[in-house]
Amino acid sequence: MDFQAEDVASAAGKVLRQLRKEADLTQEKLSFKAAIQRNYVSEIELGQKQPSLHTIFKVAHALDVTPQYFVELIQDELRRAK
After folding, report:
1. Which distant-in-sequence residues (6+ apart) come within 8 Å of 49 by Cβ?
2. Mean local confidence (pLDDT), 8-34
3. How far, in Å, CA of 67 to CA of 52, rounded?
4. Residues 6+ apart with CB under 8 A from 50
5. For the whole model, what pTM was predicted?
6. Is 23 helix (H, G, I), strand (E, B) or coil?
C-alpha cells in the first residue's frame, strides 16, 4: 500500500491518544514518563508531527507496550482508513 506522510501522522496520533487514554495518562504524565515535551505529545496526537523511531521506543516504553505493538496498531489504523 502507498501511504502519504500525513496519513501515517494521523494514524500515529489516533493510536497514541488511544493508548494514552487506555493507560489513564494525561499528555503531561505521558511526556514525563517518556522524557519528551508535552506539546510534542499533543502535536503527535493531532497528526501535526510524526514520531521518530527513537520517540516510538520511548513512548511505547512509557505506555508499557512494545514498539512493535505500537507500530502494528498504526498499520491497522492505516488499513482501516483506506
Report:
1. 9, 40, 43
2. 98
3. 12
4. 5, 8, 9, 12, 44
5. 0.93
6. coil
